[in-house]
Automatic annotation (TrEMBL):
InterPro entries per the UniProt record, alphabetical: Aldolase_TIM (IPR013785), OMPdecase_type-2 (IPR011995), OMPdeCOase_dom (IPR001754), RibuloseP-bd_barrel (IPR011060)
This protein's name: Orotidine 5'-phosphate decarboxylase
Entry EC no(s): 4.1.1.23
Family membership noted in the UniProt record: Belongs to the OMP decarboxylase family. Type 2 subfamily.
Pathway per the UniProt entry: Pyrimidine metabolism; UMP biosynthesis via de novo pathway; UMP from orotate: step 2/2
Active site positions, chain numbering: 105 (proton donor)
Lyase recorded as keyword: yes
């Protein structure tokens, strides 16, 4: 799957992943009204609204970007109906040729981590048959429990030719409370980066590993260091746009080949119509605003890479 991701990045000239993180305040009123008319102001109504909202965005941007990243919590909050909407979103995106990165941030003891890995990337055995559960192409993984929590994902990656992105240096302001702590004189995130490189060493695609890393755009200097620590790991970079990251901050996340990183923007794209810059589209044309935001982001990143 890492080879497919790289191919799609080259085809679209867009190292971009769109975060499908729907919140009800982002969903246009006309979509909510239609969903509530059919299902009432219920969990089912909310799930229908976010599904229709997602579908509109995907229809508008699928030809521009290689991948999407649905954040599972935004669906889980609506219970079982929300998780049905999550699965519908995953399946629809794959039908459109998009690579799906499930932002699930899982990581637990061995047997539990194995169940997470099977449920999201692999097949579960049911009697004499086996079935894919959510069937994303990549997922995000929390390494805090060490190799016990990560190895089950690596095993499934090898079996299914899928991938993971391990949290290394996250984009949130308080990430340094733990991630920047010094261990034998080195920040913890560097040690985690070294483990990512080790986990991925025997899990390689043609030029990059199935085991990637998450490093926030809001920490470009750390990204520069981690790029050297993990030369064969693809880096998923959240924090562009709404969290303050911009194209000029991102150049160090890429290797000399112009690859090695994929930049995430969530509400900066999916709620673009609520920004002053794209307000002329209006909520009826929210998906067209998202498309315009993707085009602007692609240009911003291209200019930054050309200038480095």
């Amino acid at each position: 799957m890492i080879n497919k991701l790289i191919t799609r990045i080259k085809e679209t000239n867009a190292p971009i992943v769109v975060g499908l993180d729907p919140m009800m305040k982002f969903v246009p009123e006309y979509i909510k009204k239609a969903a509530f008319t059919e299902y009432g102001e219920t969990l089912e109504g909310a799930a229908e609204a976010i599904w229709q909202y997602n579908k509109g965005i995907v229809d508008a941007i699928y030809d521009l970007v290689p991948a999407v990243k649905p954040q599972v919590a935004m669906y889980e909050q609506f219970g079982i109906p929300g998780m049905v909407a999550f699965k519908k979103t995953v399946d629809y995106c794959k039908e459109k040729g998009l690579i799906v990165i499930g932002d699930i941030k899982r990581g637990d003891i061995g047997s539990t981590s194995e169940a997470y890995a099977v449920g999201h990337l692999g097949k579960v055995q049911v009697g004499s048959k086996s079935y894919y559960g959510f069937d994303e192409d990549f997922v995000t993984v929390n390494p805090y429990l060490g190799s016990d929590g990560v190895n089950p994902f690596v095993k499934i990656c090898k079996e299914e030719k899928k991938g993971i992105f391990v949290l290394v240096k996250t984009s949130n302001p308080s990430s340094g409370e733990f991630q920047d702590q010094l261990v034998n004189g080195r920040p913890l995130y560097e040690l985690v980066g070294e483990k990512v490189a080790a986990w991925g060493a025997d899990c390689m695609g043609d030029s990059y590993s199935y085991v990637g890393a998450v490093v926030g755009a809001t920490y470009p200097e750390q990204g520069k260091v981690l790029r050297k620590v993990m030369p064969k790991a693809f880096i998923l970079v959240p924090g562009y746009g709404a969290q303050g990251g911009k194209g000029a901050d991102l150049v160090h996340f890429f290797n000399e080949d112009g690859l090695g990183a994929i930049i995430n923007s969530s509400r900066g794209i999916i709620a673009a119509y609520q920004q002053e810059k794209y307000a002329q589209f209006g909520e009826q044309n929210y998906a067209d605003a998202s498309r315009a935001a993707v085009l602007d982001m692609r240009e911003d990143i291209a200019q930054a890479l050309a200038a480095r």
